[in-house]
């Protein structure tokens, strides 16, 4: 028997992996060569482009923070408590992931428009959501929050409740136990969930154009330039957005994976 | 002192029902029971980790039933140790001190030095739990639970996951710790040998009910019920009706005044090639021998009654025993207990 001959299953796996990597990376790399550095530099000086990119980053970050503040406590509850209808609750949390994004946008529109009691109530309070930054954040939070809740829930489930029990008997209150033990052990996975949430939020387009075409986030601007002026005007904005997103993504992944600091886990 | 009064706790399909118990200060009390009998739940309800629906838990005269776990001064060690993986051994041990108002008190420093010395863990203080052996983890967990000076130490099968050699070492260390610190200790286990070595008092749990408590020797010698007898290792249990009409067993049957079964521990059965000087003597044939390494378990057939006996390998060799050999067996009346069905 030839010991050096690779096993068939691994060979198939490797070929599949190479095809997938090519499928993901080729369009991203290819788009860079569709344009010229000079045009990208020009786009960087375009106020409309930079405003839309910063708006995308800002709203996605805000949606992630909101998801964190509300999602982490809820995820802890789901991870630690058994109750009737828990599966139903978990399924409800996942609904924004499975419905088409334009559908999510239309659903949100029915609630926020003045035809709904909630929209009317907001209007009476002088709060106008449609066509505002708030609407963008609402849409982003709606579609991205499940990623954070599910990541945090899995992270909390990994922490043995017995560690929490020990901590409690050693004198730590429930809240101190949460921060000293549970959160300390799961923050990296929660951060990974936040990255996914942020990535999902910044890539949202379908729900946002229904709630707030203006002010324009980067995907809306790319869509508008593509439909109005064609590829040559859409590509530079696309390239800038890809670079900024990848930069933030890589930095956060490095923190989440804990470069050289995972000896304890 | 721990006083448990009419404790009731319902968890899904399982419940603890009407548990009444007093554990004296300084006792090493062991709850014995099969898996799923409710030992751990009882332990956690004493610690306040499982809220009870009825009854009271009184610690040193104070009703702590409604107190939170962090207010009870009761610590717990689990079978899996539950060490905090993101902290070094030293930080694990000192974790409880963060929440002490008098954390700078020199007594904690002394406790730390004493426990680290007694448990021989000086060399691993800077390591992380990931790099510890099972025995080392259990020692660290014990030190962490004891450094805060608890009124009560709860141990949830602390030896169950350890290799035999390490288990015996930790058993000895647990005994030494208890003798040195006199901390009231409550342990759960399903291994009666552990209980016999460590405990001075024992409670037997079956299906969420405490069915027997007493001094360890008392429960082992006079288990009372068939379930307890089987659980504490009494392997020879004879029903009076089944002994009737069997030659030689009449004298044994007379020992059953009001019980349904008669029990004799296998280690109390004498085996000999000649008639032994015991009160009850029978002739039998070795039908099966199981070699457990450190001892041999013999099944001896006596007129259709099977009797189990334990022998050391040396004794087995001296008597030149083998399956099918005719031998004498015997035991004395004082080594016999009467066991009821319930």
How are the secondary structure elements laid out?
The complex is a heterodimer of chains A (265) and B (342).
Chain A: H1 8-32, H2 37-45, H3 47-80, H4 86-98, H5 101-112, H6 117-124, H7 133-158, H8 161-169, H9 174-202, H10 206-211, H11 218-229, H12 231-257
Helix pairs in contact in A: 2-12, 3-7, 3-9, 3-11, 4-7, 5-7, 7-9, 8-9, 9-12, 11-12
Chain B: E1 2-11, E2 14-23, E3 28-32, H1 39-47, E4 54-59, E5 62-63, E6 74-77, H2 89-94, H3 106-118, H4 134-146, E7 152-156, H5 164-181, E8 184-189, H6 192-198, E9 201-206, E10 209-215, H7 216-221, H8 226-231, E11 236-239, H9 240-243, H10 250-253, E12 261-264, E13 270-272, E14 280-291, E15 296-302, E16 305-311, H11 313-318, E17 326-331, E18 336-339
Parallel strand pairs in B: 3-8, 3-9, 6-7, 7-8
Antiparallel strand pairs in B: 1-2, 1-4, 4-5, 9-10, 11-12, 12-18, 13-17, 14-15, 14-17, 15-16
**How is the largest sheet of chain B built, in terms of strand order?**
6-7-8-3-9-10
CATH superfamily of the largest domain in chain B: P-loop containing nucleotide triphosphate hydrolases
Please state the overall shape of chain B, judged from the principal axes of the Cα atoms: globular
Q: Could you say how many structural domains of chain B there are in total?
A: 2
Number of strands of chain B: 18
Assigned CATH architecture of the largest domain in chain B = 3-Layer(aba) Sandwich
- Number of E-state strands of chain A: 0
What series of H and E elements makes up the topology of chain B?
Answer: EEEHEEEHHHEHEHEEHHEHHEEEEEHEE
């Amino acid at each position: 028997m030839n010991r050096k001959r690779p096993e068939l299953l691994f060979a198939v796996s490797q070929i599949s992996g190479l095809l997938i990597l090519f499928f993901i990376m080729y369009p991203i790399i290819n788009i860079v060569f569709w344009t010229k550095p000079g045009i990208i530099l020009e786009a960087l000086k375009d106020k409309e482009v930079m405003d839309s990119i910063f708006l995308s980053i800002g709203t996605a970050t805000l949606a992630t923070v909101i998801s964190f503040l509300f999602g982490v406590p809820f995820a802890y509850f789901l991870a630690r408590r058994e109750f009737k209808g828990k599966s139903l609750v978990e399924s409800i949390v996942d609904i924004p992931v499975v419905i088409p994004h334009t559908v999510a946008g239309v659903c949100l529109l029915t609630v926020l428009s003045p035809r709904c009691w909630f929209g009317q109530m907001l209007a009476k309070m002088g709060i106008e959501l449609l066509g505002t930054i708030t609407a963008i954040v609402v849409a982003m939070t709606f579609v991205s929050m499940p990623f954070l809740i599910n990541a945090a829930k899995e992270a909390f489930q990994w922490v043995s409740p017995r560690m929490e029990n020990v901590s409690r008997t050693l004198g730590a209150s429930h809240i101190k136990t949460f921060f000293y033990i549970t959160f300390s052990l799961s923050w990296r996975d929660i951060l990974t969930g936040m990255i996914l949430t942020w990535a999902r939020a910044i890539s949202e387009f379908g729900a946002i154009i229904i709630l707030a075409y203006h002010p324009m986030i980067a995907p809306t601007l790319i869509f508008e330039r593509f439909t109005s002026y064609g590829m040559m005007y859409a590509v530079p904005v696309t390239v800038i957005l890809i670079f900024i997103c990848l930069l933030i993504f890589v930095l956060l992944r490095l923190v989440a994976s804990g470069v050289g600091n995972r000896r304890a886990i | 002192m721990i006083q448990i009064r009419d404790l009731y706790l319902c968890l899904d399909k399982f419940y603890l029902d009407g548990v009444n118990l007093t554990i004296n200060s300084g006792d090493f009390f062991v709850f014995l029971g099969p898996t799923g009998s409710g030992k751990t739940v009882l332990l956690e309800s004493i610690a306040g980790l499982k809220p009870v629906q009825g009854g009271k838990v009184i610690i040193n005269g104070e009703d702590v039933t409604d107190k939170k776990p962090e207010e009870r001064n009761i610590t717990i060690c689990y079978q899996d140790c539950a060490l905090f993986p993101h902290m070094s051994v030293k930080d694990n041990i000192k974790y409880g001190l963060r929440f002490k108002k008098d954390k700078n008190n020199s007594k904690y420093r002394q406790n730390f030095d004493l426990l680290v010395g007694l448990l021989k863990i000086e060399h691993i203080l800077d390591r992380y739990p990931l790099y510890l052996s099972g025995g080392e983890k259990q020692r660290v967990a014990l030190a962490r639970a004891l450094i805060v000076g608890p009124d009560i130490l709860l141990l949830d099968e602390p030896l169950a996951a350890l290799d035999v050699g390490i288990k015996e070492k930790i058993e000895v260390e647990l005994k030494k710790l208890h003798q040195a610190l006199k901390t009231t200790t409550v342990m759960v286990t399903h291994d009666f040998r552990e209980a016999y070595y460590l405990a001075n008092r024992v409670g037997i749990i079956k299906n969420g009910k405490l069915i027997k408590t007493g001094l360890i020797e008392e429960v082992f010698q006079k288990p009372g019920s068939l379930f307890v007898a089987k659980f504490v290792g009494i392997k020879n249990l004879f029903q009076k009706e089944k002994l009737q009409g069997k030659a030689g067993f009449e004298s044994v049957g007379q020992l059953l005044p009001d019980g349904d079964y008669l029990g004799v521990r296998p280690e109390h059965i004498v085996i000999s090639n000649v008639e032994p000087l015991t009160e009850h003597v029978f002739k039998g044939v070795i039908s099966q021998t199981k070699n457990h390494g450190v001892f041999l378990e013999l099944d001896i057939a006596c007129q259709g009654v099977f009797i189990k006996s334990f022998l050391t390998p040396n004794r087995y060799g001296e008597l030149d025993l083998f399956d099918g050999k005719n031998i004498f067996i015997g035991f004395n009346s004082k080594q016999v207990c009467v066991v009821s069905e319930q």
